[in-house]
Amino acid sequence: MLTSNQKGAVAETAIIHAATRLGVGVLKPVADERYDLVFDLRPRLVRVQCKWAVRLGPVVSIRCYSCRRTANGLRKRSYTADEVDALAAYCLELDRCFLVPAGRIAERSEVRLRLAPPLNSQRSGVNWAAEYDLAATLGRQLLGP
Predict the structure, then answer these.
(1) Cα 20 to the center of its chain, rounded Å
(2) pLDDT of 51 over the 80 cut
(3) Taking the C-alpha atoms of 117, 143, 82 and 110 in order, what is their torsion angle to the nearest 10 degrees?
(4) What is the pLDDT at residue 118?
C-alpha cells in the first residue's frame, strides 16, 4: 500500500511523462508553491497542481484540496484560480492522466469525471472523463481556439 507521499510522487511523475510525450515543456518550482508543475504551452505558462485520482466504479474522483497537520489539527484548504491554473490527476487503475481547468474546481472539494453514462441517463452537468483527458485537453490548448 502506497503512502500519500508516494501516491503524490507517482502521480506527478506520470503527469510529467504524459505531458513530455505530448511535446509540452514541464518546469518545477524551486520554492514551496501551491502548484507542483508549470506547463510551457508557448507562449502561455500554466500552473498545475498534481493529484492522485481514484476510480469509483464508473467515475474518477479527484480531490480539489490539500490537507496539512498544524498545531491546531488538520487544515483542509481548497485551490483557487489565483494559485493554480489547472489540476492534473493520475489514475493508476486506468493508467490515465486528466487535466481540469481551475474554473471547474473553484469552491469544490472534489471533481468527479464520468467514464460511463449514469444509470438515470442524465447528460446535463456531467463531467465526461474523455473531455478532461490530459492529451485531449493539452491538444486543444496547444492548437488554440
Answers:
(1) 16
(2) yes
(3) 10
(4) 77
Burial of 86 (0-12, 13-18, 19+ CB in 10 A): buried
Mean pLDDT of 10-34: 95
**CATH fold group of domain 4-143:** Trna Endonuclease; Chain: A, domain 1 (3.40.1350)
d(CA 38, CA 48): 6
For residue 105, the one-letter residue type is I
User: pLDDT: is 108 or 48 the higher one?
Assistant: 48
Q: What are the CB-based long-range contacts (under 8 Å, 24+) for 100-106?
A: 100/62, 100/127, 100/132, 105/64, 105/78, 105/79, 106/80, 106/81
Residue-wise pLDDT for 79-105, tens only, equals 988 999 999 999 999 999 999 999 888
**Tally of residues, the chain:** 145
